[in-house]
């Protein structure tokens, strides 16, 4: 073996990692080695900076547990999570686009009938989200499940409240035979990502906004269709163009239209003003 020099170390490390038993792992590791070596050369990484990065990554690991995933948050704020979403969800132009999952989804939300109020009396402006779920050719999908979740008026998700053991601002709705759905909830507000850990500490040394614009999360996993994880964002909301996790896409921005007290989209009569957002989801058929 050649002895190590500044010039040959990258080739030596690539050669060593090319022995990975799976060709995919060999490709992933040799490419990673090439890029991190290039990075260190380009920025002329100092030993103090290298140690600061190691200590930061250590704190990212130490604060993570089964409820909090600071590594995913780190990936979110550098745009890596959203890049991976883009690379893996190349739907055609008619399909509803995907965006980040985020850390707050909870499995097994309860089934909810058409128009069910998933806010269950929590404070906030009533909001109806209604429309259809169809395929990209416009054929309605009867019985499609919409797994829906969102933050409360303080920007907190149930997943951040260990004391809560009942579904809060989350439910699984189903389309009717004509593909229509209706979710009743409260209007979401923008909120900040968790800033009390190493990701927040690093961001506080920048001018980056820590806010996400107001949104509601949706997940579809219908047989015969590509899985879709997405959000709907409120048109005109703050932070749409600075979303800290790069999750906003133009087709996902919808108007929340104000209505006076009176008949609501689920046929019941509201005794207070309410908002209605109409959105027709289009799922990409599997090839
Ligand atoms: C969210 O929308 O719930 C979220 C996404 C990424 C990071 C933090 C929160
Ligand atoms: Fe969210």
Account of the protein in words:
The strands form four sheets. The protein has a six-stranded mixed beta sheet with strand order 1-4-3-8-9-10, with no helix packed on it. Strands 2, 5, 11, 14 and 15 form a five-stranded mixed beta sheet that branches. It is built from six helices and 15 strands. It is elongated. It is of the alpha/beta class and 287 residues long. It folds into two domains: 45 residues; 204 residues, Aromatic compound dioxygenase (Protocatechuate 3,4-Dioxygenase, subunit A, Sandwich). The site of fe (iii) ion has 5 residues, from strand 8.
Count, helices: 6
Q: Provide the structure class.
A: alpha/beta
Shape: elongated
How many strands appear in the DSSP assignment?
A: 15
Terminal residue distance: 49 Å
Structural Rg: 23 Å
Q: Strand content of the residues, in percent?
A: 15-25%
CATH topology type of the largest domain? Protocatechuate 3,4-Dioxygenase, subunit A
- Write out the strand line-up for the largest beta sheet, numbering strands in chain order: 1-4-3-8-9-10
Estimate the helix proportion, in percent. Answer: 10-25%
Low-confidence stretches: none
Core attributes:
single chain, 15 strands, alpha/beta, 287 residues, binds benzoic acid, elongated, binds fe (iii) ion, 2 domains, 6 helices, 5-stranded mixed sheet, Protocatechuate 3,4-Dioxygenase, subunit A, 6-stranded mixed sheet
